[in-house]
Amino acid sequence: MKSLLLAGVIALTSAIPAAAELIKVPSQKSVSASLDALEAALAKAGATVFARVDHAGGAAKVDLELNDSQLLVFGNPKLGTPAMQSDLRAGLFLPLKVLAYKDDDGQVWLTYEDPAEMFSGLDIAADAPFVAKMTGALGKLTAAAAE
Fold first, then answer.
1. What is the tens place of the pLDDT at every residue in 88-138?
2. CATH architecture of 20-146
3. What's the distance, CA 18 to chain centroid?
């Protein structure tokens, strides 16, 4: 019985992908201003913004408190399509997302998943050109937005 239970636990944990590494970029701006700047940088880069989610606003609507936090969902088919051509399951992680939030100390952060880590476990080579482009773009865009 113990070996059956152990086998079940191993099977379950191996089916759950590990959490991707989170990249955190400090911002001197407010959450809203940080994402406004990110949206402007994305527009210049030719990316499409699909959604902006105000988590704190949603919490307030049900009389709950949450530090200021907003999520920006965006993408560029020139980068995302090759990822999905390599492995359609990449669509679970695309479009890309950046979370802007204020921590308990008042610091605002722009946070996103490292694309190489995000796609690990899929049939996508870590050194695929589109992974490097996504990584570089996220780094440059979030740095510009945080300035």
1. 999 999 999 999 999 999 999 999 999 999 999 999 999 999 999 999 999
2. 2-Layer Sandwich (3.30)
3. 14
